[in-house]
Specification:
Length: 173
Amino acid sequence: MSETKTPLRLAGVVRESIVDGPGIRMTVFVQGCPHHCKGCHNQHTWDFEGGYQSSVERVLEEAAKDPLLKGVTLSGGEPFCQAEALTVLAKRAHKMGLNVFCYSGFTFEKLMADFDTHPEYKALLEQCDWLVDGPFIEEEMSLMLHFRGSRNQRILDVPKSLKEGKAVLSEYH
């Protein structure tokens, strides 16, 4: 399959966001999530059959039109449920000079533990600059947190975390 035809199932795209990572970002909300966190503000993204079909190429064409963008944020839904397509998107975003911020209901440790059965998880993580990991926990919610919804979630420096084989907090945590 050609990289330019790599399909994505999306819930939507926010072309300019300042709340989903550092700088002005394009936020890509993927469709489909197995976590179903109580109090989730993106419940419409849970259904794997919902949303609409798009492509990596189409998303990146839109990103290329905006000279203000500093990066792309992968959100959802659960990005790791579409890890193969998002790896292509993230690689190409980096080639465009954009950084990659990713949200996941999985913890970094869970993703690492699944590398053997899900090598696509490792491939996507290798393309992420930052990861907000862990499920949203309504009882831990705080509006004072930077780029995350609940206190249990961490903002990780993914390259350092992969290098050290353990979660390393980023400067944004």
